[in-house]
Amino acid sequence: MGKVSAEHSAAMSLLPADQLGVHIDPATANIHFGILLPGVSASSGCSVEVLIIHWADQFLQTVAATPFALAPGQLNPWGDIWSATLPLTDPLFARPGQYVYRYKVTRTLPDGSVLTRDFLSDPFAREYGVGKLSSFSLGYQPYVWSAGGSSWRTPAEADLVLYELNLAEFAADLPKAIERLPYLADLGVNGISLMPVTNVQETVDWGYLPMGYWGVDERFGQRRDFQAFVDTAHQLGIAVLVDAIYGHTSEDFLYEELYRDLRLPNPFMGSFAQDLFGVSTDWNQDLVRAFFLSVNRHWLEVFHVDGFRFDCVPNYWDGPTGKGYASLAYDTYQLVKDRLAAGDAAYVRFQRSDGRLNLIQCAEQLEDVEGVLLGTYSTSTWQNRTLGAARQAAVGAPGALTALGFALAADGLPTEVTHNGTDVIAKAPLQYIETHDHARFICQYGLSHGDGSELLREGDRNHWFKVQPYLIGTLLARGVPLLWQGQELMENYWLPEQGRARVALLRPMRWHYFYGDIGRATLRLVRRLLKLRQERWEFRSGEVYFFNDPERYQNRGLLLFARWQGSSYTLVALNMSGQQQWTPFWFPIGGNYQEQLHGAEEPQLNLSGVGALQETWLAIPPNYGRVWSSV
Q1: What percent helix, strand, coil does the chain show, rounded to 5?
Q2: What is the pTM of this model?
Q3: How does pLDDT run across 174-207, given as a tens digit for each residue?
Q4: Which of 472-496 are b and which e, b meaning 16 or more Cβ less than 10 Å from the residue's Cβ?
Q5: Number of H helices, E strands in the chain
Q6: What is the mean pLDDT of the chain?
Q7: CA dihedral 120, 323, 192, 131 (to 10 degrees)
Q8: For FRET with 186, which of 90, 121, 150, 234 sits at 20 to 30 Å CA-CA?
């Protein structure tokens, strides 16, 4: 099981990152610019300039950007490269600080007409300015990683609890987000799934139409700010995943707008699998595959991330043995494996004592959940089965609780796959009822009028208690739990299903909910559930069984499933109805059972002397649940 094609097994191709983008050499007092533009050649009538200006001068009408011509060359096997090496003694570079730059390409056609494309962003930039400007910094002080960084180990898939966040909404920028990291560690999560931090043109944007991939967008801070964020997270026991948008780009991505406007064959862009969003990247092209694998290596080595959440996989999904997503996941895994074999200390965080790797590769492959887990080197995938069934159950749709039960049990999905006979990889679906892509779950129970604006509508938090059984179920289900920022405080933003307003409106996390009764009650429940998941092994990697008995359970608003590992057994009993329900159950293991949510404070909820396979009547409170574990 889990075979890959011969093409996957070919030697990995990486771009020479040290020749691309901007590189400052203090030893020679030079600054080097390099940009790979296959087909943009002097013989095709092209010339390339870089225009540079100090950040402080960019908006002044009396100061213009200084142009420098780049020289053509060849970078085998990729094709045309344009480069320039400038002395830092040039008066332009007299001031320290940030400089912004852009590329300008001119093409003279055979008929004498001239095509010009200005304000081109650098696809290899490591820093960014506003809009489409790239940047670099003179006098930049590299980040010094903490001494404890070498002891950090990426968590195993079975132990992960993820928290998805948008930096702009969670804490505005990276320095402020660092201040919030102890809150997340205290909450009980050990993984952060960041929405895109790479370069986009707009100031308020989710980030899923990138122009640049090699650095952190200026909205959030500098390189060292992100490095400090990752370093601090690791010190607190939290892994960091970055959103990787590789199946499509912005129309302002240089490889799209330049080749389109200069009427040249495109070595990067084009339809491949599906064209669901943005401008598609063509994974048939060697440059595309090498570019994004090189980007992955850059983030693993420069920023010490623990893995990737691969967005919109269907855009570059051509099956488990194709050139698209499956090839990238395989190559990234082999890259880490090869670097560890070479003794590269930058990758030691992924090494397990049993020789396996804990590299996190999470796909957003909603169209083929089974296929992406079984056939690729992915460790996990998004899946909307749980979310969809929960939303249907919340409005009383027939059969929805049964569908939810099977989704919480991750029915039919693997827990481990051996690829190519040697690479054993743990597998899990993500379990969630909220993500950035959907309105808050509380919106299922009614919306405010939004002062006349549809975009300002919110879920009615007076119904907060109805969400509780769904939280209990998803956080104790089989798979990797995922919380969306503020979910633990009963955040209640509504979100349109489509349109620009989804991504272009800021919905800041309302931290004052922490101090309200609803927020504190929800937070208390989430903390208990995550602590329970950490303490009880059966929730992390044990077996699961959904008790599919509609007459006894689902038709009365009940959903029961068990988790067990060896002699450790837990029954999770959920009640989505508005009335207390009594129901019989036959525990397979006799003995005493602790009620995990309130049994410590209310010992009458605990069960003593339970007989194995003997009928035991259980009381399940309305809009809530009980969790009984063997002791």
Answers
A1: 30, 25, 40
A2: 0.96
A3: 999 999 999 999 999 999 999 999 999 998 999 9
A4: bbbbbbbbbbbbbbbbbbbbbbbbe
A5: 14, 30
A6: 96
A7: 10
A8: 150
The residue ranges of DSSP E strands in 109-168, in sequence order, are: 114-120, 127-128, 134-138, 162-165
Exposure of 421 by Cβ count < 10 A (0-12 exposed, 13-18 middle, 19+ buried)?
A: exposed
Closest CA to 84 of 100, 98, 68, 99: 68
Residue with tokens 């992390």: 540
Where b means 16+ CB within 10 Å and e means fewer, 382-410 reads bbbbbbbbbbbbbeeeeebbbbbbbbbbb
> What phi, psi does 299 have (nearest 5°)?
-70, -35
Using alpha carbons, list the distances in angstroms from residue 333 to 297, 327, 415, 422.
10, 10, 18, 13
Cα R_g (the chain), whole angstroms:
27
Find the Cα–Cα–Cα–Cα dihedral 525, 530, 533, 536, rounded to 10°.
Answer: -80
In angstroms, the CA 513 to CA 519 distance is 5
Measured between its terminal Cα atoms, the distance across the chain in Å is 38
Beta strands in 327-394 (DSSP E): 360-363, 380-381
Exposed e or buried b per residue across 132-149, where buried means at least 16 C-beta atoms within 10 angstroms of its C-beta:
bbbbbbbebeebeeeeee
User: In DSSP terms, which residues pair with 193 in a beta bridge?
Assistant: 164, 241
H-helix or E-strand containing 61? none
At 12, the pLDDT band (50, 70, 90 cuts) reads low
pLDDT at 150: 81
The count of C-alpha atoms lying within 13 angstroms of the C-alpha of 451, restricted to the half-sphere facing its C-beta, is: 1
